[in-house]
Amino acid sequence: MTTLAAPTPLLPGDAAADYAECFAALSDPTRVRLLHAVATSHGGLTVGELTDLLGISQSTASHHVRKLAAARFVHVSKVGTSTRVTVNEACCTGLPHMADVVMGVGVTGPCCPDDVPADVTVRALADADWPAVRRIYRQGIDTGIATFETSVPPSTQLAARWLPAHRWVAELDGEVVGWTAVAPVSARECYRGVGETSVYVAAEHRGRGVGKALLRRQVTAADADGLWTLQTAVFTENRASLSLHHQAGYRTVGIRERIAQRDGVWHDTVLLERRAS
User: Whole-model pTM?
Assistant: First the structure.
């Protein structure tokens, strides 16, 4: 007998209206180009700079900026006599999740990255690896968008925090170039299969697939060991980490606005979750 899957609940009306507003804001090609220009700039652009960059009139640029601001894709502020446009990181990072929800694939994703580099070896963390792990942790802290920590915890504290069977390092040419670990979210028995994950890659080796190799081992080991949920929080500015986690089957749960301060500055984080495949 064939068992039919339960129908997916219909998208609530208020969520549909909110998503439609965002999608409508991107219905104009010039507006999409303008948003891309702002999102890929460092610190935003003035309306005048956008006018020159896109080859459009100032009134046209201002019109598109107003539309994007109304849909919360950008922030607009006055700097002297100029109007400066900066991207709203929280809204932009939420857009892929909205598309997933509308298309009915918001709760599924890939098992793990499948294009990991052949020259990266991932193995269990050994006692001799702690100096490299702490050095790489320090490099992550120094980016300002990897963690709210401002100092590296002692190795004894990290060892006590992380699950012994879920601490991994990546090696490249015999050098430790990254690490990942899973920590229990609670001591309560009902949460025994829920872990909080971290992943860090050495500054000089980012962009080479080390993170993909680490995430692949992280999630496959978690699945094999009966961890049913992995979760992590990523700064909205940290797009590389968001992309990496989505490739490993994590989905966006939501945005936690002004969740904590780093060096006196409030930050938003994206709450990501992965269910066992």
Answer: 0.66
Lookup result for tokens 């219909």: 10
131-157 tens-digit pLDDT: 999 999 999 999 999 999 999 999 999
**Structural domain range at position 148:** 120-275
Cβ neighbours around 158 below 10 Å, total: 20
Angle at 206 between CA 245 and CA 93, to 5 degrees: 35
pLDDT value for 214:
97
Give the pLDDT confidence of 203-261 residue by residue, as tens digits: 999 989 999 999 999 999 999 999 999 999 999 889 889 889 988 989 888 889 899 99
Residue among 196, 168, 178, 173 nearest 134 (CA): 178
| C-alpha distances out from residue 41 to 31, 44, 67, 70, 236, Å | 15, 6, 19, 20, 16
**Domains contained in the chain, number:** 2
At residue 107, what are phi and psi to the nearest 5 degrees?
-110, 5
Amino acid 65: pLDDT: 97
263 and 152 both lie in a single domain: yes
Considering the domain architecture, whether residues 162 and 271 belong to the same structural domain is answered as yes
User: Are 156 and 22 contained in the same domain?
Assistant: no
In whole angstroms, what is the distance from residue 41 CA to residue 43 CA? Answer: 6
Q: Return d(Cα 55, Cα 116) in angstroms, integer.
A: 41
Nearest to 86 by CA among 54, 50, 126, 118: 50
